[in-house]
Amino acid sequence: xxQNFSFTIFNSAxxxxxxxxxxxxxxxxxxxxxxSVLERSAPDNMECHFIGLFKDGTLCGIxxxxxxxxxxxxxxxxxxxxxxxxxxxxxxxSSHILVIGNNTLTGQNAYxxxxxxxxxxxxxxxxxxxxxxxxxxxxxxVYMNVLAIKDFNREELPDFKAAGFNGYYQFCxxxxxxxxxxxxxxxxxxxxxxxxxxxxxxxxxxxxxxEGIEKKKLSLxxxxxxxxxxxxxxxxxAGNASFNTFHxxxxxxxxxxxxxxxxxxxxxxxxxxxxxGFNTLIKNGSDMDTYFLGYDDAVQKEKMLYLNMLYDMVSxxxxxxxxxxxxxxxxxxxxxxxxxxxEEVYGIIKHTNPLLxxxxxxxxxxxxxxxxxxxxxxxx
Length: 380
Description:
By secondary structure, the chain is an alpha+beta fold. Helix content is 37%, strand content 26%. The protein contains 15 helices and 15 strands. Strand 11 and strand 12 form a beta hairpin. The N and C termini lie far apart (53 Å).
């Protein structure tokens, strides 16, 4: 590697170089403000690190790394009430994970580069930074089991091989669901006009079911006031997931609203004055990223609340002129029923135990929850 390239690991967002945001302006999820609030309100089992890539002392690339301690969270939800062999094995051999990327999001939010650094050079630096972070944790008697980079596109795979990521297993899990907004849509009526009869009927039925529910954009003060109920609703949804690597702290959404202000949107859904659901959105340039949500299970089924939330997100994004809604992973079938398309995202992973790493191709599919779903085509 060219000797004038180097990397620096920053363990606090406050220590980031002044020029960081000149690169991060392409992606809000790598900005100083976002990384600062993520660091302060991260799940208890997650620690954030920030990597600067330099050429001749000038910043030319930025990246996010996270240490995740899975021994502190119930990973496999399906067997949470009794002894789980899968969970036991997983925690014995894969509890300590170091990943370049953002475990709370879906999509390529791991790194950004300028033209001053070739992709393979940058990835080689990131590989070395992973190893350096692992050594620093070892000094604290924390021994990494797994090293990984998550959520990049198929086209980038050859660059990782060229950058020396030898022995890493390539994987592809649940896709990122992306809703693209057509240029001729100015409002929700234009969207509805493009739906076929079956899915227009689905929309009308969902809207009818939601009668009596009041939707309200919550201020910071209102989020704090409802904090306990919000956390309860969030945990209901998190508890339904087949695989968990973290749980958000109770003050997470208030912290995000305080820091990101109008770029973070929190919508509460009320029935008879009681909060029965919420969803959150983060503005990211021309994209609108859906964030976490929560709901009362009983009300959600009766009122088709989740589907109505999806329609609300679509309506808002169309009205405000966004190009995409990033719906992320999970619930792929219902998201495709409103028009989202699946985009495959890839990752690479390596176990630090050479024997276990040799069997990664067999082990990873065992632990990776398989989700069967049928893609829907709602448009005419």
